[in-house]
Design a protein that fits this description.
Helices cover 46% and strands 17% of the residues. By secondary structure, the chain is of the alpha/beta class. The protein folds into two domains: 125 residues, Response regulator (Rossmann fold, 3-Layer(aba) Sandwich), CATH 3.40.50.2300; 120 residues, Rossmann fold (3-Layer(aba) Sandwich), CATH 3.40.50. Helix 7 links the parallel strand 6 and strand 7. Helix 4 runs parallel beside helix 7 and helix 8 runs parallel beside helix 9. The longest helix is centred in the middle third of the chain and has 23 residues. The protein starts with a strand and ends with a helix. About 3% of the residues have low confidence.
């Protein structure tokens, strides 16, 4: 079967070599991703690969901590992580990572050992598909083009766990796009149209109210409904903001599926 594999890490030579082998020898769908928190935060929830291979090289605790953003992704999506490292980088990774489960491979990489592990992952993925297929039957809807398009929700939050959880809640009913910052949201909205924005109230650099103020100043975006996502401690401040900026409301985190869907239906129908 064709696994979807993401390859990342500072050691670009090993990352490139492994990517080439996985494409040539195994025919996998290989995604190369920069080893930055922003790139991983954006691409992993969007791609949801079966496997992430991290190629370490001359690491520090700061570069190792970048991969902590994968913690919620692996927990929700069941992604396997393989870390390729020498002894010193492996010890550094173990001492500073917040990831809960991973496999280590030493350098130079043994393709035989790697492929053995990939065979296990393939089998696991295939079993999950087979188990689900007994409960699912295919139906091709001849009237699919007659159905109204799914509403598009943009979720803005600097907490990867919150983003992934909200996507899990909404993906059954809506098209969902995730971005980690207010700046990224505004950049996305310049090129894409959405029907509603779920906007974290407290974010670094550019918080929710600042994003909403910017939207209100842009004629093409001013009419997009906005719902704040807020913690319990910020509730009184948010209520004051409701009066000043007039968003379509707020939801207290962690947001329940029923509350999210009900609020969106109330606004969009």
């Amino acid at each position: 079967m064709q696994l979807k594999v993401m390859v990342t890490g500072k050691n670009r030579k090993i990352a490139s070599d492994i990517s080439d082998h996985l494409i040539t020898d195994r025919g996998y769908n290989v995604i190369k991703c920069a080893s930055s928190k922003e790139a991983l935060f954006e691409r992993v929830p969007a791609e949801m690969p079966h496997l992430i291979i991290i190629c370490l090289g001359d690491e520090t605790w700061e570069t190792v901590s970048v991969f902590d953003v994968l913690k919620e992704c692996t927990r929700i999506g069941g992604i396997t992580i393989i870390v390729i490292a020498n002894d010193s980088d492996q010890k550094l990774f173990i001492n500073h990572t917040k990831l809960e489960r991973m496999f280590f491979m030493s350098r130079p990489v043994s393709l035989f050992a790697l492929y053995e592990k990939l065979n296990e992952i393939e089998k696991k993925v295939a079993e999950n598909i087979d188990n689900g297929s007994m409960l699912v039957t295919e139906y091709i809807n001849p009237h699919a083009n007659d159905l109204p398009p799914r509403k598009h929700i943009l979720v803005v939050d600097d907490d990867s766990g919150q983003l992934l959880q909200i996507k899990e809640h909404l993906k059954e009913f809506y098209e969902v796009t995730l971005v980690p910052t207010g700046e990224a949201a505004l950049k996305y909205l310049v090129k894409h149209r959405v029907d509603l924005i779920l906007l974290d109230y407290m974010m670094p650099v550019m918080n929710g109210p600042q994003v909403l103020e910017s939207l209100r100043l842009m004629p093409s975006l001013a009419d997009i409904p906005v719902v704040f996502l807020t913690g319990v401690t910020e509730k009184d401040t948010v209520v004051k903001t409701l009066v000043e900026l007039k968003p379509q409301g707020y939801i207290v985190k962690p947001a329940k599926k029923s509350e999210l869907v009900a609020k969106i239906i109330d606004i969009l129908g």
